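User: Could you walk me through two proteins back to back? I'd like the raw sequence and the structure tokens for each, with a short line separating them so I can tell where one ends and the next begins.

Assistant: Of course. Protein one, sequence then structure:
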Amino acid sequence: MKTVSPFLELDDAPTVAVTFDGRTLDLPEGANLAAALLAAGEGVFRRTPVSGAPRGPFCMMGACFDCLVEIDGIVRQACMIEVTEGLQIARPHEAGAEDDT
């Protein structure tokens, strides 16, 4: 996977297809989901409910909750999830919001 992301590429693992906001992405199987999405060029995982400010991974250890995504209908921290085949990932609470990557 070639990106303009400042994060190291995760190209040694076999990839699996996941869906992120209706787009299919091939991410490394078993990789940390937050890291894999960042390496794929996805910088905005959610927006704050009040101001709509963009948020993405910050601590990468489950303390800050900035990497929240909706996976199969449940809001979870992306930094605490491994990439597996067929994940259905969406930005939480953003029906109709614009993509700001």
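----
Protein two, same layout:
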Amino acid sequence: MIEIAEFLTVDQFAQMLDLHPRTVRRYIHDKQLKASKVGAEWRIRKEDAEMFIGGRFENLKRKATNDIETFLRGIDSEIDGKLQVCTILDCYVGTPEAIKISEIVMWHMNETNPHRGKAKFQYFYDDEAKKGRYIIWGNPYFIGKVLTAVSEVTA
């Protein structure tokens, strides 16, 4: 049986590919991308996402690793501001918090708050370790809000 954490939302998949969510929904409706309805939302299995993007999934992981290494070396990133933060949040599947954490990250990424500044994230699922990994970049205000919200559902 496939666990919920092995599914991506349309927003997560769109973010991974730097596409608008409407474009991803169009791929689903045109049957170019396999997805299932869960309630009112589409969910995309990791395997179907990998098939859709071919080898791009591994390239995205490499790009995320390169982005982190660039950040650690102090080279300017695409995140604006004098203060920049990068955090990695691992969430093990099968926990009640897993879905809530996904919702929290997506809500904050889509939030229209002028203090948020420019932010980005990438999500990867490690099938061997059975965990999702969120890599989030932004200013301290934004990262603090995300981590505070996550801590409130995991306390």
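The first helix runs from residue 10 to 17.

Let me know if you want the two compared in more detail.
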